[in-house]
Every structure is written in C-alpha cells, then in structure tokens.
Amino acid sequence: MKKLKLPITIDPYKSAQRRLECEGIFEMSGMNRLLAACEPCDGQVTVNVDFNVDELGLVVISGKGSASVALTCQRCTEVYEQALEVDFTFSPVKNAEAAAELPSYYDAIELDENGEVNLRELVEDELLLAIPLIPRHSLEDCQAPADSVWGELPEELEKPNPFDVLKQLK
C-alpha cells in the first residue's frame, strides 16, 4: 500500500462528521523544530489519524505517529538512530476558556483563524515530546565504558563549622 502525503491543515468538525480516517506521511523536511532538535536527516513521519465525535458530542482527533531520527549519544557523542512512537488524543477548541471545560482525558488543540487544525504541527509537537531528555545508546551498543568517570573530585578541606559559635553562647 502506497503512503500518501497528508494535508497540512484540516477541518476537524467536517472530518469528524464523516468519521474520516487518514493514513499517510509527512516529510521531515517540513518539520523545522524537529530537525533542529535532531541530527540532519531526510525521512518521513508515518501518521494514522482518526476523526470522531464522542458520546459527549465533542470532536476527537486521535492517532499514532512514528519516525526514526538521528540523535547524538550523550555518553560517547556518536550519532545513533532513535525510533519515536507517539499516541495522541486531542479535542479542538476555539479559546482557552473552552479548553478548561474539556474532560481531563483529552488534550486541547486550538483552531487557527480558518477553523482548522495544523495536523503537521500537532504531530511534530508530539514527536518533540517523545525525544529522550538524555539521548543515549543502550549500554551494549555504546562506545563509552559504562563506569567512565569525567574528572576527579577535589579533596575536602577541613573547614570550621559556622555553628560552633553558637555552642560558645551556652
């Protein structure tokens, strides 16, 4: 099955009425914030998105995304491939007041001036959150030794305790 390019923006209300299911790709070259957080790479993000209306009458955007990005290992400073997998569930809102009224199991996504959601930015945000805080290889794949030490601690000097003055006041 050939993966099709997904639309960048989409009307969630019309899509939910039709119970639209989208499966396709986004080119990573259009995701500047993700490229800034990773090593340069040309790749694709595979996305599967469903638009629905829940039992409360709220429009729901749910889906999955996956991509493979190049990160720099913080132990050995070598570049390695990291698979990113994300699941998301959003409900579109028009303003912050409407976002406060959403049930806690939905994240809010604001509509743009045309009443649409930027699907590419939504997936890019989720992928950015999936990048590990400290990127590193697994221990068996890393070039740096697991027990490496990065410098020596200076020996502690004998310093007088500042609270000894209080003992003399008794």
List the helices and strands and how they pair.
Layout: E1 4-5, E2 9-10, H1 12-17, E3 21-27, H2 32-37, E4 44-53, E5 59-72, E6 79-93, H3 96-100, E7 107-110, E8 117-118, H4 119-130, H5 164-168
Shape descriptor reads flat
Order of helices and strands: EEHEHEEEHEEHH
Report the biggest beta sheet as strand number plus sense, adding barrel if it closes: 6 strands, mixed
Mean pLDDT: 86
Task: Report helical residue fraction.
Answer: 10-25%
Number of strands: 8
Strand order of the largest sheet: 1-3-4-5-6-7
Low-confidence stretches: none
The end-to-end distance, rounded to whole angstroms, is 85 Å
Cα-atom Rg, whole angstroms?
24 Å
Strand percentage: 25-35%
